[in-house]
């Protein structure tokens, strides 16, 4: 017997401050990292475009993940750090809501990473058009807070 798909009823839960942080990492070639640092990527400023994409995605999480509630987001902070072997993205989302914002934080980190890949894919491909080096990894929630 199959279960019905349904959104969780949060009607009776109290509104409280919800905060979630998520992070992820994209491994890139050293040459690509240098292009990003020098702002020489043909598609534009990788870091700023990834931040804007992440912010937009966070605000639309409920439209992307079918059973997520629409949440009135009060703050989004996307932190992008260029490291020696890639780029680390941290997404922090806040809201006064009846349910947590960890999916929103995960969407923010994920979309920033995917945007970075899209913007640098021409530099990451090998001679066969494949991506043997590029890898998105370690996407996870690193903090979840609920304050009543």
Just name the CATH architecture: 2-Layer Sandwich
Question: Which of globular, elongated, flat, extended, rod-shaped describes the shape?
Answer: elongated
Ranges where pLDDT stays below 50 over 5 or more residues in a row are none
Mean pLDDT: 96
Backbone structural class:
alpha+beta
Q: Give the strand content.
A: 25-35%
Alpha-carbon distance between the two ends = 38 Å
Count of the separate structural domains = 1
The rounded Rg comes to 17 Å
- Major sheet summary line: 4 strands, antiparallel
CATH class: Alpha Beta
The number of strands is 4
CATH topology name: Alpha-Beta Plaits
Fourth-tier CATH superfamily name: Molybdopterin cofactor biosynthesis C (MoaC) domain
Count of DSSP H/I helices? 4
Give the helices and strands as they follow along the chain: EHHHEEHE
Strand order of the largest sheet: 2-3-1-4
Percent helix range: 25-40%
Helix and strand arrangement:
Layout: E1 16-27, H1 30-37, H2 46-59, H3 61-64, E2 73-83, E3 86-97, H4 102-124, E4 135-147
Antiparallel strand pairs: 1-3, 1-4, 2-3
Helix pairs in contact: 2-4
């Amino acid at each position: 017997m199959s279960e019905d798909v349904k959104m969780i009823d949060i009607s009776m839960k109290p509104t409280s401050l919800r905060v979630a942080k998520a992070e992820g990492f994209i491994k890139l070639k050293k040459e690509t990292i240098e292009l990003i640092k020098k702002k020489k990527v043909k598609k534009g400023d990788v870091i700023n475009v990834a931040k804007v994409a992440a912010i937009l995605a966070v605000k639309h999480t409920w439209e992307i993940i079918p059973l997520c509630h629409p949440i009135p987001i009060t703050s989004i902070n996307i932190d992008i750090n260029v490291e020696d072997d890639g780029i680390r993205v941290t997404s922090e989302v806040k809201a006064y809501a009846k349910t947590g914002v960890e999916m929103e934080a995960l969407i923010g980190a994920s979309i920033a990473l995917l945007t970075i890949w899209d913007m640098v894919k021409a530099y990451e491909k090998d001679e066969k058009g494949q991506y043997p080096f590029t890898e998105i990894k370690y996407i996870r929630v690193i903090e979840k807070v609920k304050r009543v």
